[in-house]
Write a structure and sequence with these properties.
Number of helices: 4
Strand order of the largest sheet: 1-4-9-6-7
Organism: Streptomyces africanus
Largest sheet: 5 strands, antiparallel
Keywords: Signal
Radius of gyration: 28 Å
Distance between the termini: 62 Å
Protein name: Galactose oxidase
Shape: elongated
Structural class: mainly beta
Strand content: 25-35%
InterPro entries: Gal_Oxase/kelch_b-propeller, Gal_Oxidase_central_sf, Glyoxal_oxidase_N, GO-like_E_set, Ig-like_fold, Ig_E-set, TAT_signal
Helix content: under 10%
Length: 800
Amino acid sequence: MNTYRRRTALVAVGALTAGLLLTAPQPASAANLIRNPGFETAGAGDMPYCWEKSGWGDNDFAFTTTPDAHTGSKAMKVELTRRVDGDRKALITESAECAPVVTPGRQYDLGLWYKTTTPDASVTLFRHDTTAGWQYWTDLKTLEMAGTWTEATVRTPEVPAGTDRISWGVSVYGTGSATTDDYTMEQVAAPVPPPECTGTAEQCANGKWDVLPTKNPVRSMHSVVLNNGKVLLIAGSGNNESMFRAGTFTSAVYDPQKGTYKVIPTPKDMFCAGHVQLQDGRVLVMSGNKAYPVPGGHGYEGFKDSYVFDPETETYSRTNDMNDGHWYPSATILGNGDVISFGGLREDSSGSVTAELFSEAEQQWQPLWKVNQTWSYWGLYPSMILMQDGRLFYSGSHVFGNNIPGTGSAIYDYAANTITQVPGLQKKDERDQSASVLLPPAQDQKVLTLGGGNIDSNPEANRLTDIIDLKRPDPSYAAGPPIPQGTVDLGDGPVPQTGDQGKMYVSAVLLPDGKVLETGGALHNRANPVFETSVFDPESETFDPVAVDPEARGYHSSAFLLPDGRVMTTGDNPGNGSWNHDVSVYSPPYLFKGPRPSITSVIDTEWNYGDTQRITVDRPIAKAELIRPAAVTHSSDPNQRFVDLPLSVDGGNVDLNVTSNPNLAPPGWYMLFAVDANGVPSVAKWVHLQGPRALKATDASAHVHDFADAPEGKVTGPGKKRTSQKVSPAISGCDRHYGSINVCVPTDFPAEVRKTTAARCAWLKANDYGRLKVNGKDDPLGLDRDRDGITCGKKDLTRR
């Protein structure tokens, strides 16, 4: 498997010193922010004034000031004659004298004229952070090969906060040359004033929730947005033992356009399976529930079976088996289209230490001997996020009980078969059912982790957030702002949260305006729903409370983005075994800010890496992006990502520049949104990304810059081969000595009700458990003091 690992270092190989000018410098014009845009002013050494040599890696190169100019008498030629790795680039000198001043939040139009003999040339930007100094920002545009002078234009993303200057130029990262001249840089005009509100003042500020009139017909805990705009809702047995025993397994396809559901025959109990969308838009579903727990015996068991769901035929077909059972497995698509999976429970209910690899080329799970193994137990639904160099970041989000040993988060390198612990995650053993998301845009490589608790010890869930910048040479989590508090239902109706009360079972959804919606959750294990929804802004790193979902959304709930820009939420499965079939849909504030832009045409829906793709819009837009459709369960969707598309605008024609790095946007179907200056998005169009075109498959990340290069945490390699990890039968936080299998009596009650039988029984009554049958002779929670086989009777409450 190619993980496209890059070890890079930006090295300025010809930085200028002040003075030694042969002629007076040419100032920037009133509009053009570039000093010496045509290289006509000589500088120190062999580089023009305000330009420097830069690059890295093993290659043979030359920088030449050539008379073959677009205008004037000079142009700059950068050439690679041999390349093993790395690049060479001519950049604006990173100094206060030369680097253009920029304003955070504003955008800039960049332009240049060029000729190239290689398809591997790109417009590259660096930015000066007032705290951290100069750092790589982004690659904006891949230059098409051109034998004659050709103009290239592109618009930057909004300048990040804390940035005061930028530097940019053209990188060459394949053999051949790029000759450039006549650079321009102009600040984009300020955005238009905000439009008038088209809804109520409350809707314009906080959005609006609607509970749909038609209920979800299945007990779905898995939600996948398909490439035709419909939604696959997978239940399997729906955490219902009677349906399991009857062999009744269900899924449904929801059509948001029609508001209808179609129940789909489902071949196996996919309750708590893993799932991911393959490159062609089909859905790979792996493992599921082989058996429910037996009191005093085994716990949940996972099977080896795997299936593919086809959105066109709306049917499942079986693949070959996995090497191991994996109840609650991870599923991450890689830059080459392969899928890697870890964790979960085996067929004997022990923890799986087997890494699994599904080959895109072969369309099957690979035999064990073909897959690198560390023999590590990653837990259940470990959140494994693909990084821009092909490594995986384990964020620390998982389900059920304590985190893995160590710091609770790590960088996993498949090619080197090593795990490097990453520090900083707060309360790492209370991040059960937290959510983690790669923040917009994916190019920034920042991950946000929110909330969590611990199903085994059952403390009050927390409101912690942690943010990590994976571009930093030695990344570590830093504490983020606390999740806003809402209300919590402790049994007598909602009351305001107090102290440090937060929530587990958090849902986090990327929005097309570049923000993150977090919603739903509960204070304890499958009890005490929290009603709170807010929007996180990655730029300011702040939360803004918004309208609240009126429905409880705890265990087995899902939230996901629809192609029309709304967010849909489903499910809730409290410990008493009931299920919420109501479906809610949230319309964010941006849908009440006036007319939406419309993508009137997409010239080509088949996209390759490094492409420039043209769309037309009916009115001006400020940005465009690709959002990977959701495949979410249990607060977990590690493949969710928002990929910025730098754009060039010519009236209603917009040219979008597609990343050349498949690790930033793994192959598959994406929702394409166009967004105006007020953050109002279009309805999405579907595009299919694959390739690469200009880059070779063995070097698909030929232009990835220095980040997370040498983490200082503890590094471990492959461990001793073993078959499994011992796991408690009570790993799901449920004591199976009581009630039916789909009822979850906590193994540990909340602190305030642990001391007496009366208090525990009152808590069960408040949460609608009723009186429960005792399974067997053991009564570990002391709920059947009179030994009549039924919990919480009158004599149970009076006996000591």
